[in-house]
Request: fold
Amino acid sequence: MAGTEIDYIEIEKKPGGLEYISDFIQERSLGIKLGFKKTWELMLVVDEVCSNILANSNSEGFLKVVWKSDDTCVMVEIIDRGEPYNPLSPPPDEDEMLSLGAMGTYMIDRMVDKVEYHRIKDINKVCITKYRKRPNNHKNMRSNGKGSEINEKKVSHNPDSP
Reply:
């Protein structure tokens, strides 16, 4: 990412912190003139991932959100130190997947261009990419942290992945 703009925010993993993250994403998006729809989609996905982490990570401390942007894309990294928790994994129960609160994985697949989860030592890291202009032959992609990418229409869950 040549000519990259980098910024970050850290919040305590407590209720009420999501507002600061949303403001952070919105301010950075406005600064690069990302556009209303792309900004809204990015904010919604970041909020969903952060909400899942805050609700399910079972650890205290801080949540760090890193903004990186250049002429081609925006990348948002969400970094959480604690127990293994992949917020991109679909709920194991299909009935739970049908509930409104469990539509996150479906929404993430539709609203951003690429999303990856990695577990490095005691750190959970989610990388979200939103292209400023979508490449011609582009498909939304997800990675389960083991290097294999999954087409948006064929989402599978590896029970061995964190």
In short: The chain has one domain: 5-151. The two ends are 28 Å apart (CA to CA). The longest helix spans residues 36-56. The helical segments are 18-31, 36-56, 94-98, 104-111.
